[in-house]
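Escalation from tier 1.

The customer reports that the assembly of two entities below gives different structure tokens on two consecutive runs. Tier 1 could not reproduce it. I'm attaching the input and our single run for tier 2 to review.
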Amino acid sequence: MKRGFAPVHGVALALGLVFLYAPIVLLAVYSFNESRLATLWGGWSLRWYRGLPENRALIEAAWTSLRIGIAAATLATAVGTLTGIALDRLGRFAGRWALGGLVALPLVLPEAILGLALLLTFIALGIERGQGTVILAHAVLAVGYVALVVQARLALIDPRLEEAARDLGCPPLKTLAVGPVPLLWPAIMAGWLLALVLSLDDLVLASFASGPGSTTLPMRIFSQARLGVTPEINAIATLLIGVVAATVLLASVLIKGTAGRR
Amino acid sequence: MSERGARAWILTPVWLWLGTLVALPFGIVAKLSISEQALARPPYRPLLAWEEGGAVWQGTLGNYLMLATDPLYLRALASSVALAAGSTAIALLVGLGLAQAAIRAPLRWRALALAAIVLPFWTPSLIRIYAWIGILKPEGYLNAALRALGAIEQPLAIHGSWAAVTIGLVYTYLPFAVLPIYAALERQDPALAEAAADLGCPPWRAFWIVTVPAAWPGLAVGGLLMFCPAVGEFVVPELLGGPGTPMMGRVVWLEFFNNRDWPLASAAAMALVAILAAPFLIHQRLGARR
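Tier 1 run:
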């Protein structure tokens, strides 16, 4: 046998994909189940989807999540892009090592610790808890990811571009704006989307940082899921998976498109 | 504007952000972990009290002592590490198999195979974990299927067990294991595997002496990337675990929200950080030696 795709590889891949997709497929299929009992098949039906618009708490939580997600992603993209530039383009500066560590810290800390730490900080600083604090908490997590994506992309952009601009008398900030930043757009967009997905996905940080009027969709789903499996959650979960899958596909097409054209 | 001015424009907001929202929170948790709980608002005593004759130190190591001696917390610590280490080991094995299979696939299928492995990672993790409740619970799909096949008579009590938590952790973090291994294997020289085969080395042996060493850097990074979030996981033990599977992430949550013991929750968080530091230091040592 030479190197190649042996049957054992096909079997491994197939088993792996079944493990990864079976739970999601089962969830989606049973969201169309007529029966209220989770495991008994009672025929196809859209009844759980029809009931969703009347579930005011769920709809409200979905809008809250979307608002928080967009705000957190935008904030994180702004700070994260600056951080990425600082890490890749400013050379040596005092505290660069500490800066890199602080950027990476939220990425490796378990969410429960980050959530607790942020909540205690909001209390210590006297910041009223609500949607604003959830936005901040999500942005803290996402800044690390955005900075990583931006930094990785910047490393591929030739610094001679800025040198040329500088030699032609371009001031420093403008040098960045006309040099690498236009080439960074795919990375910035990818970072924004990543931050949005992180925010929409998060339960733990939101639970710590939230206050009145900032119950997110994952928090709502979680409080129901604790009590067991219901067809209503299956339906909203399936919708959510569909939306996320569509967004990711769209994003990858967009990013490929921009990357290809340049 | 000068070069220095441009630097300031970039670095000032970044330092301000990281200082108030990363460094300060960490400091506050560290400070609270050595404070004493009190029935007050906020529910702890300040580290320094001003009394006649000057400042009095009120800090205490009592919270850490409690964590180190109370069997409840010791069990949570031990089972967090055991569950995270066990599921990381399983995920690395599964990841090695998947990455190896994906890399051997014909070139035009390779990217698709990798995308198919990573795609579920983009769906909300809460929903993916929730999906396993329906499969594992006593009246769930797995037990129904096994019963229909005649394999069991009594439903298996998987939901709530360590097995359920392990499945949940592996399922949640598998891409963290697959991607670094795939990246490491991609750099491997295919001629090595061919040479092994030409020299009559059986495939399983070639796997051990060629593939595993090539995947080693990926295994180390993947293990680190998965162990860290897994050891402090909250959602998986909350939704899939039971009384037999306490984990530190839940201890932090419960002490804070249910018992309102902020200092103890902070000490538990610091203990988790200490656990996380160990694999990082080991990784750095190994990296330095290579």
